[in-house]
Hints:
Layout: E1 7-8, E2 13-15, E3 20-22, E4 30-32, E5 47-51, H1 55-62, E6 67-70, E7 76-78, E8 81-87, E9 95-101, E10 104-108, E11 130-135, H2 147-163, E12 167-171, H3 177-184, E13 192-194, H4 196-205, E14 215-216, H5 223-226, E15 230-233, H6 241-244, E16 249-254, H7 263-266, E17 271-273, H8 281-291, E18 295-301, H9 303-312, E19 316-319
Parallel strand pairs: 3-4, 4-5, 5-6, 10-11, 11-18, 12-15, 12-16, 13-14, 13-15, 16-17, 18-19
Antiparallel strand pairs: 1-2, 2-3, 7-8, 8-9, 9-10
Amino acid sequence: MITPLLAFNDKGIYCQQANVYLDPWRPVDNAIITHGHADHSRWGHKNYITHHTNVPIIKHRLGEINVTGKDWNETFTINGVKFSLHPAGHIIGSAQIRVEYKGEIWVFTGDYKTEDDGISVPYEVVKCHSFITECTFGLPAFNWEAQTDVMTEINNWWVENRAEGKTSILFGYSLGKAQRLLKNLDPNIGKIYTHGAIENMTEVVRPLIQLPPTIRITPETKKEDLLGNIVIAPPSAHGTTWIRRMTPYVTASASGWMAFRGARRRRAVDKGFVLSDHCDWTGLLESIKATGSERVICTHGYSDVFSKYLRELGYDARTAHTQYDGETNDEDN
């Protein structure tokens, strides 16, 4: 039986020829990492390879590790296998991994989105024979509005709350979503305050992108300072004593899951904004078509539904189990 160039096992996505794993979820000797979210970049590997803009991010999260940074489209060869990293557009420093051996080409997307968010290097189509795609939002119900429209809604919401003398608290994941929000908030409306987890990560990426000034909330911050201004906080802060001392306030969540009716109620927020760092249904289908791939392997998310639809379109499509979370981890997606 011929071993595929990339195979799934209990540690991750494995390239036997090179003895390298892609985003492994258990400790391995050699790991190529797509991006800095906790479900894709885990502690314990002996050697890490990632895009150079992701190096300070994973060092911030994982501590001192043996990591090598690569440029976009830079080819590096391991035991005859050619690897290169290409923009995924998911978050800052996020990459797809292209793997080539004896004329066979695979692409592993990690997580990705096709809309240019203004902080990530935009998604790049990479031609291949086999394409490993996430399916976090792989249902026809997920159809994103343009970021400019969503951010207009968010800024208008902030203006309304300011007029009522209330603090606006907006929940977004500390890496990626928070910086995307910061980049597109209108600082002319008021001051932007941040939870410590948001500020810590933002300090790491500030040298990489231009962001407006922010103010870290400390025990000395008075609720009077916050009135009429906006606070960016991780979802895990919701319902804590940290939040309750900010009254009067209005809460909102920025997430792809806000497209589901009832999601706002389940998360106990006053307002929901549909803003995701993953592809919607159309984005997934258009991306797959553009690669020219013959085989598609669907991972985390609605992989069963999505792969079934791909087979109906004539693709050689199947699912594979991983330990990636998609947009569910409060701190990191």
